[in-house]
Amino acid sequence: MSSKPITLAICGAGSRGLLSYAPYALKHPDELKVVAVAEPREWFRDEAMKRHKIPAKSVFSDWREMAAKEKLADAVLVATQDSLHKEPAIAFIKKNYDVLLEKPMACNETDCREIAEAARGRKSIFALCHVLRYTPYFRRMKAIVESGVLGQIATVRHIEPVGFWHQAHSYVRGNWRNEKLSSPMILSKSCHDMDILLFILGKKCLRISSFGSLMHFRKENKPKNAEARCLDCPLADNKCPYSAKAFYMKMVNDGNFGWPLSVICTEMTPVGVEKALRKGPYGRCVYSCDNDVVDHQIVSMLFENETTASFTMTAFTPKMHRETDIFGSLGCLRGDGNIIKVTNFLTGRTDEFDVNRESGDITGGHGGGDEGLMKDFVKAVRARDFSLLSSGPEVSLESHMMAFAAERSRRNNTVERIEL
Ligand SMILES: NC(=O)c1ccc[n+]([C@@H]2O[C@H](COP(=O)([O-])OP(=O)(O)OC[C@H]3O[C@@H](n4cnc5c(N)ncnc54)[C@H](O)[C@@H]3O)[C@@H](O)[C@H]2O)c1
What we know:
Elements: E1 6-11, H1 15-21, H2 23-27, E2 32-38, H3 42-52, E3 59-60, H4 63-68, E4 75-78, H5 86-94, E5 98-101, H6 109-119, E6 126-128, H7 136-147, E7 153-161, H8 164-172, H9 185-188, H10 191-201, E8 205-213, H11 244-253, H12 261-264, H13 270-279, E9 296-303, E10 308-314, E11 323-328, E12 331-335, E13 339-344, E14 350-354, H14 355-359, H15 369-383, H16 393-412, E15 416-417
Parallel strand pairs: 1-2, 1-4, 2-3, 4-5, 5-6, 7-10
Antiparallel strand pairs: 7-11, 8-9, 8-15, 9-10, 11-12, 12-13, 13-14
Helix pairs in contact: 5-6, 6-16, 7-10, 10-16, 11-13
The protein binds nicotinamide-adenine-dinucleotide (NAD).
Nicotinamide-adenine-dinucleotide binds next to α1.
């Protein structure tokens, strides 16, 4: 095994590329070095260049310029927006880069299949950023199920409580608000949930049905005296839970410059934030946006061996941690995003696992999943071993096909089969 760090090119150095994954290289310089970047936004491109000391000849403003060069790194991270995944992913796969692709794979079934097809059977490593698989918490949950202590798994209840302010930020005002600009919410947000059910159960999903809608964040629900921009709105101070003024100004005034403030502007001062709210998408009233993705959705699933699962996604909660109940013939499990409790029916005993505390060094986003993924990706690239990653092309395609089938069901009032 080489002691030199593996080298990484970043395609799309935005919130995920520059701010979530690239810091791994600065923290672990012996494992990973960022050596090239393609990014059209000047501030982000310059930051990537400065932070990672990338030579000017390896800095580009478009992924196509990077892909046109001889291979510049061992691996590439494709972290462009959802609708810009397929072309760079396939181009870099064909250039024999090891590829780490942000989820969702792509916005429609055909494009997802094309990416999986391009990655299939090659010697290079390909993985999707299904970060939940790389968290100590979900790994423990899977290990408990696999240990057999719960017996035969009858059913799972899984919930993604998106959170009212997160929904407003990302799915009403932000990048994933409109299906034409990105994809349906069940794909953009909940492909993670379809995927984690596959991961935990280790079974194929056979059939699926779904209901849901955009119930609340619609023009007809706008209060009479609300303004189109929160900065001008009489309800902004304490009368509207979705006020952008109250939410983002509090962040900057508290000196909290992380996500999601880092998405709305780069000038981290009250004046900079106010400018962004005055002109940019994040200052809009939640009832005056061009959003169309659902704010609540439920999905019913039938897996192999008669196991069923239900999934609920809702905006309308203050919570941000996914919750999971697993009901087996010998026991049941409840996970609240931090602590997993396992009850044994025979002994009546409940064991509690405070996984995140036990793991000690959990840092970074998604309960350590962002960092866990990078760690395993680096290992897999070094060892040329696909098996060190669990989110390869086949299983990722499966979770995406579940999401597309759920969406067809929601729209057409049907029960759908999962076609792989
Ligand atoms: N794994 C997860 O849990 C997770 C979480 C959030 C977002 N995501 C996904 O990550 C991806 C990126 O999201 P983000 O929040 O970082 O978005 P972002 O907009 O901050 O970053 C995307 C970057 O791509 C750049 N870009 C645009 N055109 C380009 C081109 N031609 N060549 C190179 N770069 C180009 C943009 O300028 C931008 O900086 C999305 O697909 C999103 O759905 C995944």
